[in-house]
Design a protein that fits this description.
Strand content: 15-25%
Shape: elongated
Helix content: 25-40%
Number of helices: 10
CATH superfamily of the largest domain: Creatinase/methionine aminopeptidase superfamily
CATH topology of the largest domain: Creatine Amidinohydrolase
Structural class: alpha+beta
Number of domains: 2
Distance between the termini: 66 Å
Largest sheet: 6 strands, mixed
């Protein structure tokens, strides 16, 4: 198999070098799988490989070079943003996507991202490529994305710093009678004002018994004295996301609220103390569950301890009872144990951390105080 690895010369910028190196690593990964070409449909993967941040894009990765297919709406943007690839402007009125791909796809063994393409779209492409040796190949780029480079780490740290500042400011505005939606909207606005590209995901901000909804939507519920207040949110810098949760009680906690909080904090602390390269993610998940079991809350525990975070909110490695990953230096993961009691409330504490040669480093830094007044 004749893989051509681009030589990176002194005239190449640092940014261009970053994308060329990623492309080279992917070609080597494909070689190990005995595949020459890959059709990439996942937008985050296209961004990771080329720097193009728009939509309506399809990427052909091959030993003969990368071809990014788009249309007139995004052609100039793609040319200005993309690195290490030729940008093709397809006329949607005269050429099908499958026909365009066929024009540029070498007649060799090909993989495609089956989990990232619409079934109907794929059928039309597959009809054009009926004579090709083509089969699903998912997760190849995601495994490369699992270990972050310096640019990615710096971007996520900046996003987390924005989130830390926005939360600190928001907490000064918490008062009786404010609604979930009011605070969530204000938090999103603060992150944008501080330089976030957007929100990492739809902000989760819930009061009282609604805090037991792990991914609930903010509504018109008003804050009262003694309510739990759960806030799960993140900022975005250069396409990279942060993800943090803090839970508070407005006023004085009752006995059960305090017990829940102490159990979740102990679970997170024990899990963090176990973090280092080489740790099995299933075992790490069990460490968290064991602490919650000792506290009597195991039946109310969330089903996973955490996940990787980067261009996507949830990416490998996943930390749960069924996935098979070991932590590596350069992973950025969340550690987020939670307890959710229906009709009473939920508590989650979540931090982003970087796995290092010496263990781990916090990326999120907001204080974990429980009581706010």
């Amino acid at each position: 198999m004749g893989y051509v690895i681009t030589i990176i010369g002194s005239g190449i910028t640092q940014m261009q070098t970053r994308y060329l190196q990623r492309q080279q690593r992917l070609l080597l990964a494909l070689q190990e799988k005995d595949v020459e070409n890959l059709l990439v449909f996942n937008y985050e993967n296209i961004f990771y490989l080329t720097g193009y941040s728009g939509n309506a894009a399809y990427l052909i990765v091959s030993t003969q070079g990368l071809k990014l297919i788009t249309d007139y709406r995004y052609f100039e943007r793609a040319k200005s943003e993309s690195n290490g690839c030729e940008v093709i402007c397809r006329d949607r009125d005269t050429e099908s996507l499958g026909a365009c791909i066929k024009r540029f796809l070498p007649y060799e063994k090909t993989g495609f991202e089956s989990l990232a393409v619409n079934y109907g779209v794929w059928l039309s492409i597959a009809n054009e490529l009926a004579s090709y040796d083509i089969s699903p190949l998912d997760g190849c780029i995601e495994m490369l994305r699992m270990v972050k480079d310096e640019f990615e780490v710096t971007s996520i740290k900046k996003a987390a710093a924005i989130a830390d500042l926005a939360l600190a400011d928001l907490l000064t505005q918490v008062s009786k009678g404010v609604t979930e939606l009011d605070l969530a909207t204000e938090l999103d606005y603060k992150m944008k004002k501080l330089g976030s590209d957007g929100v990492s995901f739809d902000t989760i901000l819930l009061f009282a018994e609604r805090s037991a909804l792990p991914h609930g939507k903010p509504g018109e519920r008003k804050l009262n004295y003694g309510d739990l207040l759960l806030i799960d949110f993140g900022a975005v810098v250069n396409g990279y996301r942060s993800d943090m949760t803090r839970t508070y009680v407005y006023g004085e906690p009752n006995k059960q609220q305090q017990q829940m909080y102490d159990a979740v904090l102990a679970s997170q602390t024990k899990s963090l103390h176990s973090l280092k390269a080489g740790v099995d993610c299933q075992q790490l998940n069990q460490i968290s569950l064991d602490v919650l079991a000792q506290s009597g809350f195991e039946q109310y525990a969330g089903k996973g301890l955490g996940h990787g975070v980067g261009l996507a909110l949830h990416e490998v490695p996943f930390i749960n009872p069924v996935t098979d990953y070991r932590l590596e230096v350069g992973n950025i993961i969340t550690i987020e144990p939670g307890v959710y009691i229906p009709d009473f409330g939920g508590i989650r504490i979540e931090d982003d951390v970087l796995i290092t040669n010496d263990g781990f480093e916090f990326i999120t830094h907001a204080p974990k105080s429980f009581v706010i007044n």
